[in-house]
Design goal:
By secondary structure, the protein is α/β, with parallel strands linked by helices. The chain is 49% helix and 8% strand. The protein is built from eleven helices and five strands, in the order ααβααβαβαβαβαααα. A five-stranded parallel beta sheet has the order 2-1-3-4-5, with helices on both faces. The chain starts with 20 loop residues before the first helix and ends with a helix.
Length: 276
């Protein structure tokens, strides 16, 4: 296979250690501006994957992210933000990282090199055909992720791959490969930079679109968000004020009574109809 790691190409910039702070920041920003354009080019592949995920989640399926290192951390991050943002159970979108939770803060030696471990961890969740699995690896060569995707696909599970190298081994074993070509990193081989940014943008697009299509957003508001702090209670209260033309105190009381903006608004409308 003619496979070349674009992400390992030498940086376009030299003598970084001799640059001023302003030069470093300006050049990093210049490179970052290329990322959104690279992601734009793979929207058709993202759309295919998201459509498939929505169909399966509407039938009760789950979405799994699996990765190692920075890629794994980004998957766990995106999954962990689903319950507070959209009020969906933490059992519906699940992030798995090579080396377990310890790897979120500290590297776990050789965890990503175990090709059978990823699939075993997915099996621990009793993964089924209506689920979906997205492998995340900037290099596209991580054995832990490749093994998981290969076995998931054999089991009839929808698989996607997010990688920044075209024609990678990981892309070959996935149903749908998403390959934003961000080019060489500012610091040679440091895929936590542009590659990581591209992966984060794509994960944002996937999870947000899925949640909207599953009815977890009304208009442009997070009506199912968890009320875990004063900021979110205030935000929810103001949503209800705007939706129902109520004063702040009444809206806040309704929100706390029902636990979410959606439930508060729906309950208010039900009572109004009963009293007509």
């Amino acid at each position: 296979m003619n496979f070349r790691k674009v992400t390992e190409q030498e940086s376009y910039y030299h003598d970084l250690d001799k640059m001023s702070v302003h030069e470093l920041l300006t050049d990093i920003n210049r490179e970052d501006q290329k990322v959104a354009l690279a992601v734009q080019k793979v929207i058709p592949q993202i759309e295919r994957l998201v459509t498939g995920i929505i169909e399966r989640m509407e039938q009760g399926g789950r979405l799994f992210y699996i990765g190692a290192g920075t890629s794994g951390r980004l998957g766990v991050l995106d999954a962990s933000e689903i319950p507070p943002t959209f009020g969906m159970s933490n059992q519906r979108v699940i992030g798995i990282i090579a080396g377990g939770d310890q790897a979120l803060r500290n590297p776990v030696e050789s965890a990503e090199d175990n090709e059978s471990a990823g699939w075993k961890e997915l099996q621990a969740y009793h993964i089924q055909v209506q689920d979906s699995v997205i492998g995340i690896a900037a290099s596209g060569t991580t054995p832990y992720v490749i093994g998981a995707l290969r076995n998931a696909r054999k089991a009839g599970i929808l698989t996607g791959a997010i990688t920044c190298n075209p024609g990678s081994p990981m892309a070959e074993v996935a149903d749908i490969a998403i390959e934003p070509l961000v080019g060489a990193e500012f610091v040679t081989g440091s895929t936590r930079m542009k590659s990581g940014t591209a992966q984060k943008l794509i994960l944002n697009m996937i999870s947000t679109t899925v949640m909207i299509r599953l009815g977890r957003v009304k208009g442009n508001r997070m009506v199912n968000m968890q009320l875990t702090n004063r900021k979110l209670i205030d935000r929810g209260t103001r949503m209800i004020m705007e939706e129902l033309s109520l004063d702040y105190e009444t809206a806040c009381r309704l929100l706390k009574l029902h636990g979410s903006v959606r439930e508060a608004v729906d309950s208010y409308h039900r009572e109004w109809r009963l009293n007509q």
